[in-house]
Amino acid sequence: MEYRKSKLEGVVTLDWANRNVLVTGIEGFLGSWLSKALVEEKANVIGLTRDDIARSNFALLNLGKDITLIRACLTDYLSLERTLNEYEVEVVFHLAAQTVVGTANRAPLSTFESNVRGTCNLLEAARRMPLVKSILVASSDKAYGEHLSLPYREDFPLQGRNLYDVSKSCADLISQAYAHAYSLPIVISRCGNIYGGGDLNFSRIVPGTIRALLFGENPIIRSDGSPVRDYVYVKDVVEACLKMASMAGEPSMKGQAFNLGTGKPISVKEIAEKIIEIHGGNYKLEVRGKGVPPGEIAKQYLSSEKAARTFGWQVKTSLDEGLRVTVAWYKTYFSK
To answer: Does the pLDDT of residue 8 top 90, yes or no?
Structure first.
């Protein structure tokens, strides 16, 4: 594989031009922005998707013309093996997952099928394909479960208890196991709450609040407003994922996990109020929940010192700047 010297001293990154890259969950929020970056780097992108998402960011970016789309589920092992083999995939970004806490609570079996079995299937298929030289698995801060000591660091145990958290803990541990048992070039990203334009899951606080405001409604939050999270802008995460995948083949990187967050926690109530201020107008936040919703953790935020130390990553987008850009994106989206 060809590499190039990056702007970071001592860090060598992959040259993406003409590289055969598979992105699972390509029509999703993170997948669409990552695939856009890969297309701009002139990679040959193969996207795995289960559903055709109407009016998605992927469609708005008109990425279909530049990407080979495969319709398949992660639970279909033979389709994964065929895709990796026939398209001679060298790099895998595994982003596909069921990502909603409420959905996991309602239907845990389908969540485990996607997040746990799906990850097993993909890594097993990759293990059998000698051309695969780099695999990034998208985990989450939810994989840590609840800890009294904060911020989360990469050496904290993965001890998910809630249904969604358990699915992420399992997928993360399975990825580490494949890296160590088979010396697969796997790296793992553990992100805080990713936000930005293109997230169409309106049960999340950022897009849900913005949508309410754009439709002239007071935003409503389903907790008491106290849960604390780490919100990181999607394009900062894309940059980190590209760097991590570039370095996954290095022996010291195999099986390594990296937190990706701002290290600046903020409560649900505070971020909703920030969005109201940025949007403007005479709106009032309606707090209808009591305590922390079922399946959620009261406080979660990350230390990203390891990512900064290892490959020089740091957040470039402040929360205020990121929210302004995000509000503008949804204004354009709903105007159409």
So the answer is: no
Are the C-beta atoms of residues 143 and 158 closer than 8 Å to each other?
A: yes
* Domain of 155, in residue numbers: 3-194+233-263+298-317
Residue 309 placed within a domain? yes
Can you state the percent helix, strand and coil of the chain, rounding each to 5?
Answer: 45, 20, 40
CATH number of residue 49's parent domain: 3.40.50.720
d(CA 91, CA 19): 8
Q: Count the Cβ atoms, other than its own, within 10 Å of residue 93.
A: 29
What residues are labeled active site? 164
Tell me whether residue 207 is in a domain. no
Say how far apart CA 24 and CA 93 lie, in whole Å. 6
Q: How many domains does the chain have?
A: 1
Could you report the per-residue pLDDT of 289-327, keeping only the tens digit for each? 888 888 889 999 999 999 999 999 999 999 999 999 999
**Cβ atoms of residues 142 and 99 within 8 Å:** no
Residue 9 in domain: yes
Determine, yes or no, domain membership for 279: no
277-298 exposure pattern, b = at least 16 Cβ within 10 A, e = fewer: ebbeeebebebebeeebeebbe
The predicted model gives 75-83 an average pLDDT of 98
State yes or no: pLDDT of 163 exceeds 70. yes
Mean pLDDT, residues 151-156 taken together: 98
